[in-house]
Specification:
359 residues; mainly alpha; two-stranded antiparallel ribbon; 13 helices; 2 strands; 1% strand
Amino acid sequence: MRRLPAWTSAAPVLAALLLAATWGTKPATAVLVVVAVVLAAAVLAAVHHAEVVAHRVGEPFGSLILAVAVTVIEVGLIVTLMVSGGADTSTLARDTVFAAVMITCNGIVGLSLLVAALREHVVVFRPEAIVTALGTVATLATLTLVLPTFTTSTPGPRFSGAQLAFAGVASLALYLLFVFVQTVRHRDYFLPEGGAADDPDAHAAPPSDRQTLVSLALLLVALVAVVGLAKIESPAIEDAVRAIGAPPSAVGVVIALLVLQPETLAAYRNAARGRVQISLNLAYGSAMASIGLTIPVIAIASIWLAPPLVLGLGATQMVLLAITVVVAAMTAPLGSATVQQSGLRLVLFAAFLFLAVNP
């Protein structure tokens, strides 16, 4: 594999230095513009280094690396904002996790299918993988985001302590079980079938151990810097949300959009290369990681967090989640999709964004 472009090494380091220089301050507007530019560069660098590591370890392990790394950083961002935000952040975990599910299952899947369908007309994927992944996502979302609205042990859409502990353990167990199925027991289900033949990178020599370790280190630096800089931008985001009259839950949507940029770009690039199975692995894997890793950590952190943890979705959100699962379930067993299926996902994603601003 060719040498890493200089900018992909410089961007994470520059982002980390900018994060250190601006952390704990209230930057001026001009500085916030610089932060936004460096943030975008760090996102692109993160995608590049994730692909280097993925090429070295092979699929489906490569798809897991970015999903887990981004989710771990997402958890840190949620906890940090909840600690500093007060009672207004009681729904931040719910809003961010739900937004991550909608972005991945509708936005990233819809974009990947659209790109692949424009290239190949009929997109082929492994139904065994997608049915398994979709079933896991639907179960995780129901256990953690739907049930709190209907339980009666505590007032409001909240779990009791025992219920939250059960949800956290069950979420982590389901996620670890899926990882075992994906990487050990039925690994072949999640590998591309025929689509990699036209991809020149699929036949390129894998990077050296040294290059892989350098990319892994830079990936971690980039992800930390991305979320840290996003936190610095968060006051400006909150001001913008209030200025347009959007509800506070829109902040969680913006956070999820920022954090999931590396996975979105990686999924797009794989779909453009005819490797839509990898794109779908990334999308559904990210949705599972966002729930299966976030909820257990938030459950533990809630012991020390001041605001009550509100996880239950509202009626509008539950309708969007239900139609998302139904549409995906009608496509997954077929093992193929066309531009129509991509359009359904993208319209649902647009509806989610519109209703997040105009509930």
